[in-house]
Every structure is written in structure tokens, then in C-alpha cells.
């Protein structure tokens, strides 16, 4: 065994941050490290397969701490949960490295005993917080200060894209650290080994959207664009949009946004053309990707975006916003189409992909090749393993 690495993550659900942490754990385990997760919440019915089938050890700590107080103070309670989990690690574990993400306030606690702490910054938390009035600003001010100071205490900082690195530098102005980019990848083995599911109907053309049911993902763009596409399509009756999302009934936004999207589809008379899926299993999601003809990725200024990579690996063309992480993964009109944040622009791209089969197939093949050149799981794993080895080696030299 090369060493022990603990992954400290607040809520081990099914989002992109969770996928990154799970893939990082698999990469290090495959390289000979002993790995496990410490988290404050893990629901076997709402998680990635590797965290419930025994592939990765998961220890739930601090679940007695509530998520909020009367629907408020989510950030504060997330901080408390991670501090509680950190003390658990100090008292009962002795890892060589702790890999944490999302919440940095745990780092000074971990540093009381753990020599090597890696922090993966998906995006500064203070920029994800919804705006509010004077009291909200007063509440957030010390939390934002803590985020900046504690992030700088990590021994190694990664970010998920050049876009996020730029935001990191503009946000954490007191830090002289230049974080290193570690692009997320996907564990392609799980895609290759997933048994084929039911095929789509003959002649059917399927656009697919995969995101959590959160308003910032702007899935309504895809639904509105579909309305424009079917107006002039020759075989409109064979066109579908499948909307797939992580859905947690504990989260009010998931529930309300899901209802709003359903209402939008009905108001546009698209009930028979838009299908909604809540938190599908990994195998179900993989087969939805296999069966689709094109991925529609609507969030603007997405920090990275793992779903476009999944589609590219499976040779599916991607239509995404011309901002954020997708501008680093997708070459416009080469392996996908980058659009303005506008339903009409998305509709034009969707029509082009729909009507030109040769162009569609060319985009898919080019996307697959770009994935192999820049975003493979082996590249991700090698870089992460090298950095972990460097940290442990430095510790032994000291």
C-alpha cells in the first residue's frame, strides 16, 4: 500500500462534484492507495454505484447535525458538518493525505494532525450563494473571509478549468497561490461495461439534457428551443427531448424547478415530446446517452461540465453555451456547437444537427478523438497520483 487517502465530502450525492471525488478515489485506489470517504450524508438510493456496491468505503459522520435552521443558514451548517467530520478524522484515523472539496473551513482543523491536505476548488462558494439583503450580506461576510483564508491553508489546490482558475484569482485576492488545473474526466470502464438497455423507437430523434434540477442549469432553454425546432421539422412527431436530472426531495429547489419545467412543457404543448427522468441509476443514464442523437447542455458559465465529456466519449455531438468550461472542452463546429445563451440560437444549432446526418456523425467522431487526446481517465489519474506521491514523498524527506 502506497499510503492512505481520505476523501472528505459534505454530501455524497450524484452531482458533478461528487463524480469528480468518486473518480479521484477510484484512480488512487487503482494505483495502490488505501482510500475511503468520510461524509455527513450518503443515501444509497441517491448516489453513485461505486459508493454503495463496496468499491469504495464510505463512513457517514455528523448526520445528526441539521442541514439548516428553519430553511436558513445552509452554509453555516455545512461548515459545522465538515468541522465535525474533520475532528472524527483527527480522533479515529491517521491518513497520509486528505482530499477535500466544496468546503474549505475544515482545512485548519485537519492541519492539526494531517500533514497533507489537497483542496479541489470547483468554484468559490461565496459566488454560488444567492444574493440577499443587508442581513444576508452580514451573515455571509465572515463565511466568505473564512473561505478565502482556509483555502489558502491547503498544501495543494486544484481547480477544474482555466475558467475557474481565473475566477479563483479574482475572488481570493489575498492569496498569491496559483492553483493547478486538474481537468475532471470520466471512468470510461463503467461506460464500456454497462449492459445495453432498451433501444429507442425506430426513426426517433432524441435530444438529451442532463443536469441537476437547479434553476442555474437553465434547462428551460432546451425546452423553448425544442418548440422552435418542431415548428419547421419535416418529421416533428419523431423528435423528442429527454430531460434527466439529479433530484433530491429534501431540496426545495429540485422539487419546484421540476414542477416548473413540467408546466413549461405543457404550456408549449410539448407534453408528448418532453420526457422527464429523476435521478436515474448510472446504468440508466449511460443508456440514455447511448440512445440519444445529440446532447443539449444549457448552463451558462458552467465551471467545467462533466456531461459533455461523457457525450463526447460516446461519440455524441454536444450543443452548449459559449461560456465557462465548455469552451475548453468543445471546439466550435469541430466537435460540437457553442451557442449564445438564447433559445433561438440553440434552436438553430439543433436544426443543423437534426437535418445534417453527416455533420452530426462528424461532430461525434471529432468529439471522441478530442476526449482521447486531452481528457482521458488515465491522464487524470496519472496527474493526481503523481501529486499525491509528491506530497507524501516531501513529508518523508522532512
From TrEMBL:
Question: Which Pfam families does this entry report, sorted A to Z?
Answer: Glyco_transf_4, Glycos_transf_1
Q: Any idea where the Glycosyltransferase subfamily 4-like N-terminal domain is? A: 14-172
DNA damage as a keyword of this entry, yes or no, is no
State the top-level EC class: transferase
Q: What are the subcellular locations of this protein? A: Endoplasmic reticulum membrane
Main localisation: endoplasmic reticulum
Keywords, sorted A to Z: Endoplasmic reticulum, Glycosyltransferase, Membrane, Transferase, Transmembrane, Transmembrane helix
Example GO molecular function term?
A: transferase activity
Glycosyl transferase family domain ranges (all copies): 192-366
Tell me which EC number(s) this protein carries: 2.4.1.132, 2.4.1.257
> For this protein, what reaction is catalysed?
an alpha-D-Man-(1->3)-beta-D-Man-(1->4)-beta-D-GlcNAc-(1->4)-alpha-D-GlcNAc-diphospho-di-trans,poly-cis-dolichol + GDP-alpha-D-mannose = an alpha-D-Man-(1->3)-[alpha-D-Man-(1->6)]-beta-D-Man-(1->4)-beta-D-GlcNAc-(1->4)-alpha-D-GlcNAc-diphospho-di-trans,poly-cis-dolichol + GDP + H(+); a beta-D-Man-(1->4)-beta-D-GlcNAc-(1->4)-alpha-D-GlcNAc-diphospho-di-trans,poly-cis-dolichol + GDP-alpha-D-mannose = an alpha-D-Man-(1->3)-beta-D-Man-(1->4)-beta-D-GlcNAc-(1->4)-alpha-D-GlcNAc-diphospho-di-trans,poly-cis-dolichol + GDP + H(+)
Q: Specify the protein's topology with respect to the membrane.
A: Single-pass membrane protein
Pathways involved: Protein modification; protein glycosylation
Q: Which family is it part of?
A: Belongs to the glycosyltransferase group 1 family.
> What function does this protein fulfil?
Mannosylates Man(2)GlcNAc(2)-dolichol diphosphate and Man(1)GlcNAc(2)-dolichol diphosphate to form Man(3)GlcNAc(2)-dolichol diphosphate.
Which PANTHER family does the protein's record reference?
A: ALPHA-1,3/1,6-MANNOSYLTRANSFERASE ALG2, ALPHA-1,3_1,6-MANNOSYLTRANSFERASE ALG2
| Protein name in the entry | Alpha-1,3/1,6-mannosyltransferase ALG2
What's the source species for this entry?
A: Nesidiocoris tenuis
Amino acid at each position: 500500500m502506497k499510503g492512505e487517502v481520505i476523501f472528505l465530502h459534505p454530501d455524497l450525492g450524484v452531482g458533478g462534484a461528487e463524480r469528480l471525488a468518486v473518480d479521484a478515489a477510484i484512480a488512487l485506489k487503482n494505483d495502490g492507495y488505501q482510500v475511503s470517504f468520510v461524509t455527513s450524508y450518503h443515501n444509497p438510493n441517491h448516489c453513485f454505484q461505486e459508493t454503495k456496491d463496496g468499491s469504495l468505503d464510505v463512513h457517514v459522520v455528523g448526520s445528526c447535525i441539521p442541514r439548516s435552521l428553519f430553511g436558513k443558514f445552509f452554509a453555516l451548517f455545512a461548515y459545522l458538518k465538515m468541522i465535525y467530520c474533520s475532528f472524527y478524522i483527527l480522533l479515529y484515523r491517521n491518513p497520509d493525505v486528505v482530499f477535500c472539496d466544496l468546503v474549505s473551513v475544515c482545512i485548519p482543523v485537519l492541519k492539526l494532525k494531517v500533514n497533507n491536505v489537497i483542496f479541489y476548488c470547483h468554484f468559490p462558494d461565496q459566488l454560488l450563494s444567492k444574493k440577499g439583503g443587508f442581513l444576508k450580506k452580514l451573515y455571509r461576510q465572515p463565511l466568505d473571509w473564512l473561505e478565502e483564508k482556509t483555502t489558502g491553508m491547503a498544501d495543494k489546490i486544484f481547480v477544474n478549468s482555466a475558467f475557474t482558475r481565473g475566477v479563483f484569482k479574482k475572488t481570493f485576492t489575498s492569496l498569491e497561490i496559483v492553483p493547478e488545473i486538474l481537468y475532471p474526466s470520466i471512468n470510461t470502464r463503467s461506460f464500456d461495461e454497462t449492459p445495453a438497455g432498451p433501444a429507442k423507437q425506430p426513426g426517433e430523434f432524441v435530444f438529451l439534457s442532463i443536469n441537476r434540477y437547479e434553476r442555474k442549469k437553465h434547462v428551460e432553454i432546451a425546452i423553448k428551443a425544442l418548440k422552435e425546432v418542431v415548428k419547421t421539422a419535416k418529421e416533428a412527431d419523431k423528435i423528442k427531448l429527454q430531460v434527466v436530472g439529479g433530484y433530491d426531495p429534501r431540496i426545495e429547489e429540485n422539487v419546484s424547478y421540476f414542477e416548473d419545467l413540467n408546466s413549461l412543457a405543457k404550456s408549449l404543448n410539448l407534453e408528448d415530446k418532453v420526457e422527464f427522468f429523476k435521478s436515474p441509476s448510472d446504468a440508466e443514464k449511460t443508456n440514455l446517452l447511448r440512445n440519444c442523437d445529440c446532447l443539449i447542455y444549457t448552463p451558462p458559465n458552467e465551471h467545467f461540465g462533466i456531461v459533455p465529456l461523457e457525450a463526447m466519449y460516446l461519440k455524441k455531438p454536444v450543443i452548449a453555451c459559449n461560456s465557462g468550461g465548455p469552451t475548453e472542452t468543445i471546439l466550435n463546429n469541430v466537435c460540437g456547437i457553442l451557442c449564445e445563451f438564447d433559445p433561438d440560437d440553440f434552436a438553430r444549432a439543433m436544426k443543423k444537427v437534426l437535418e445534417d446526418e453527416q455533420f452530426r456523425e462528424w461532430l461525434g467522431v471529432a468529439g471522441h478523438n478530442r476526449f482521447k487526446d486531452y481528457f482521458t481517465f488515465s491522464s487524470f489519474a496519472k496527474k493526481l497520483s503523481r501529486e499525491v506521491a509528491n506530497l507524501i514523498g516531501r513529508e518523508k524527506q522532512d
